[in-house]
Amino acid sequence: MQELLNKLVKKNVVLTKDGRVADYIPELDKAKKDALGVCILDNEGNRYTAGDCEIKFTVQSISKLVTLMLAILDNGEEFVFSKVGMEPSGDPFNSIRKLETSSKKKPYNPMINAGAIAVAAMIKGKDAREKFQRVLDFFKKITEDETLDVNYKIYCGESETGNKNRAMGYFLKNDGIIEGNVEDALEVYFKQCSIEVTAYTLAKLGLFLANNGCTSTGEQILTPRISTIIKTLMITCGTYDMSGEVAVRVGIPCKSGVGGGIVAVSPGKLGIGVYGPSLDAKGNSIGGIHLLEDLSRELKLSIF
Ligand code: DON
Question: Which DSSP string corresponds to 154-184?
Answer without folding.
Answer: HHHHHHHH-HHHHHHHHHHHHTTS--S-HHH
